[in-house]
């Protein structure tokens, strides 16, 4: 009786494997390879964007509402151990290719090793979504696609791993061989899971899950009083209404992607509360051409190559027609990255008239104002932009529009 059952089992195993091959193995590995190729291509695009063309080349889809590829790719959460995440992504996809190539020679079951490796980017994807959507309030469509591919790949790998394990156990049982031990597989998957969970907490920490804080400026009791425009200032750039009660200062640069995001927030807040906030706008161009505090990295093309020139154009517009300054600076931000000085000057001449604009651009007032802003940024120890200054100090850490509103409401006293 025992021999009959053994013969039936031996004869059944091949037929089960043939039927299984018809239903699943052709489809699932094909989907896994497809997702691997998609992930590789997107990761290469993001790698080129992060390393070769930061802030210079705009990716399709990054101009949608609430999207912000430059903001996301240049944020603190976009790096791990000092390297852009696409670098780690390239290592991950290369490692997957090696595993695929050496599948039959590995001492660990193929599916289990894939699970241990694939769980790391899958958990990282979930962490990144939390940081981007809940903390940074921005997303990158290309990053979303990449992380979606990572999660889908992980789910397929888990399905394939369990199926491959069951098949191997059946084959071993039919051949009267000892069953596979789960010990090595458990250790492998547990190691990958531990790394993934550690990465989750690291991502949340980098993303600023604790929210923004106010840091005192060393040696300056009230940075707003120091940087705010005096009544006799020749070229003030202020967002204000006659009855505004509270004031803050923002140091910005027309080529800074983070500045663009914060400028949009400030515009919304000032529009919602026109009689509450006085916003003093100062400039600290991120270019060594006019700002000695900026080190020339030698990067070519530089995303901030036109920063000094665009700042001068914005100040010339403010000098010629103060009411036009806010809209023109918004226009500069909306046309980044890649906006040239010639394009900005053409837009300024269209708004103001060529002769009037050129006269203001050539005036000493613009150059003196730019020099004063740069001097103030040095005195106030501003080393990164945007810099939002309140009387108690500088706002530090990423923040959402809601967090900024609450911070301004809690920390700004009425103007005396």
Descriptive terms for the model:
7% strand, 59% helix, 416 residues, two-stranded antiparallel sheet, alpha+beta, de novo design (two linked rop proteins), 2 domains, disordered N terminus
Question: Could you please describe the fold and organization of this structure?
Answer:
The N terminus is likely disordered. A hairpin with a 2-residue loop joins strand 1 and strand 2. The strands form two sheets. Strands 3-8-7-5-6-4 form a six-stranded mixed sheet. The chain is of the alpha+beta class and 416 residues long. Helix 2 packs antiparallel against helix 6, helix 5 runs parallel beside helix 7 and helix 10 runs antiparallel to helix 11. It folds into two domains: 205 residues, de novo design (two linked rop proteins) (Up-down Bundle), CATH 1.20.1440.130; 199 residues, Glutaredoxin (3-Layer(aba) Sandwich), CATH 3.40.30. It is elongated.
SSE diagram, text form:
Layout: H1 2-23, H2 27-51, H3 69-73, E1 79-80, E2 83-84, H4 85-101, H5 110-135, H6 141-174, H7 182-206, E3 213-215, H8 223-227, E4 238-239, E5 246-252, H9 257-272, E6 277-283, H10 307-320, H11 325-334, H12 341-352, H13 354-361, H14 364-379, E7 387-390, E8 393-396, H15 401-411
In short:
The protein folds into two domains: 2-206, de novo design (two linked rop proteins); 213-411, Glutaredoxin. It is built from 15 helices and eight strands. It has helices at residues 2-23, 27-51, 69-73, 85-101, 110-135, 141-174, 182-206, 223-227, 257-272, 307-320, 325-334, 341-352, 354-361, 364-379, 401-411, and strands at 79-80, 83-84, 213-215, 238-239, 246-252, 277-283, 387-390, 393-396.
